[in-house]
Amino acid sequence: MVRMLIGGELVEGTRGLDVVDPCTGGIFTQVPDADAADVERAVAAAKAAYPAWRDLTPAARGEILRAMAAKVTENAEELCALLVQETGRPMGLAQFEVLHLAVGYLNYYAGLEALPELIVEDDTRRVELHRKALGVVGAIVPWNAPVFIAANKIAPALAAGNTIVVKTAPTTPLTTLRLGELWADIVPAGVVNILSGGNDAGALLVAHEDVAKITFTGSTETGRKIMASAAPTLKRVTLELGGNDAAIILPDADVAAIAPAIFAFAFFNSGQVCAVIKRLYVHDSLYDAMCDAIAGLASSATVAPGSDAAAEFGPVQNKAQYEKVLHYLGEARAAGQIVAGGDVPEGAGYFVPLTVVRDVSDGAAIVDEEPFGPILPIIRYSDVDDVVARANASPFALGGSVWGSDTAAATKVAARLESGSVWVNQHCALDPQVPFPANKQSGFGVEGGVEGLYPYLALQTINVAKPVAAG
Ligand code: NAD
């Protein structure tokens, strides 16, 4: 059994958690299911390891982060195979997550430091602003990009001088646990602890008095619960939550040129990404052409088990999400016209065809809510001011994009969106150097870039009075 990493030791735990293959719906292995004692030991180990880790130089911590990244690269073949197995996704996508995203973010934060700033200096005082580590960070991770999201929490938390306890998602623990096994010899004991377990283990971390901060990525619904249960200990929280990204196609866009990219950014990882295109607003003059182009691409895509070399898209990752997606398929059928996909295949596994819905409007659940699966609603608009208002009408504000041939004009429209990220003629362009902010009910406490280091640090001013000159 793949084990948890607690205080530098690999631990089997006392309970088991089934791991299901989304391509068959059958259990294929078990991992430990962390109980209260495991959470307690992990937090205690992180607390004990904290002072020595905090007191290392940023460069020394950076060396260890770089070694962690190198370990991932050296073992990429095994890690990607595990990720394909637990998510059902194609190998190319697993490689992108492990080698490009996880390794990229670990290396980016290696050695990054928040230097003190001189705020004011005059004859009477010198005031500096410092940023100091917080202590033990609890990281709670979702299932859709388990390795990347864990790495994007571990890297800035450790670079800032904190230690960490990671709780993996109940349905995708394997690859991250294996990372812990690989890192056990290169990370000082207790600096990184990795637990697998259910929601209860996450809740215990959030409530724990010795955890200084929670960094959470997951649904808005769980984010609300986490914020409430962090209140008694007044923990700092970073919440990266749901999204309902709009893409706006301006009248001067070239449909044939952009349709493949629109398709790719809508159905990436079978739509199971917080910031892919979830509402496609197309100008009246291009509406039929764009619907035809996207439907054509969706109809010819191969949805199959990730282990199949022909697979371009995998299944929905877990049963609960599959049932949610089936519910939204019903909503789509009632609210619009399905022009690709829609019919769920018979047989085992959580497979859903790439589905395109046209003649659908704002107000339909399939437009206003986040299905988090392979269903794309295409909505018609005729007035740019009106479509900007409709895009902004959502309580979510994670990402958004504007597409047009006149890049400057498209950029002006993009700047009017309220989402944390806006992209022009692209979507979901993740980059370790670029902050990925979440606005409105998509969360707060940014990840990515130098700004992504700050939520792991507490501010301190050092205000020194200067001696009064004698006489
Ligand atoms: P989820 O909220 O169901 O679960 C996420 C994690 O929280 C899991 O590890 C789970 O065990 C844990 N958890 C559940 N209840 C908890 C509680 N009461 N206390 C502590 N921990 C608890 O989310 P999910 O279904 O795994 O992920 C999908 C969602 O994540 C989508 O809404 C998606 O948009 C969002 N997401 C957001 C981002 C972002 O960066 N904003 C990135 C990826 C996914």
UniProtKB/TrEMBL annotation:
<dbReference type="InterPro" id="IPR015590">
    <property type="entry name" value="Aldehyde_DH_dom"/>
</dbReference>
<keyword id="KW-0560">Oxidoreductase</keyword>
<dbReference type="InterPro" id="IPR029510">
    <property type="entry name" value="Ald_DH_CS_GLU"/>
</dbReference>
<dbReference type="InterPro" id="IPR016161">
    <property type="entry name" value="Ald_DH/histidinol_DH"/>
</dbReference>
<feature type="active site">
    <location>
        <position position="240"/>
    </location>
</feature>
<dbReference type="InterPro" id="IPR016162">
    <property type="entry name" value="Ald_DH_N"/>
</dbReference>
<dbReference type="Pfam" id="PF00171">
    <property type="entry name" value="Aldedh"/>
</dbReference>
<feature type="domain" description="Aldehyde dehydrogenase">
    <location>
        <begin position="16"/>
        <end position="462"/>
    </location>
</feature>
<comment type="similarity">
    <text>Belongs to the aldehyde dehydrogenase family.</text>
</comment>
<protein>
    <submittedName>
        <fullName>Acyl-CoA reductase-like NAD-dependent aldehyde dehydrogenase</fullName>
    </submittedName>
</protein>
<dbReference type="GO" id="GO:0016620">
    <property type="term" value="F:oxidoreductase activity, acting on the aldehyde or oxo group of donors, NAD or NADP as acceptor"/>
</dbReference>
<dbReference type="InterPro" id="IPR016163">
    <property type="entry name" value="Ald_DH_C"/>
</dbReference>
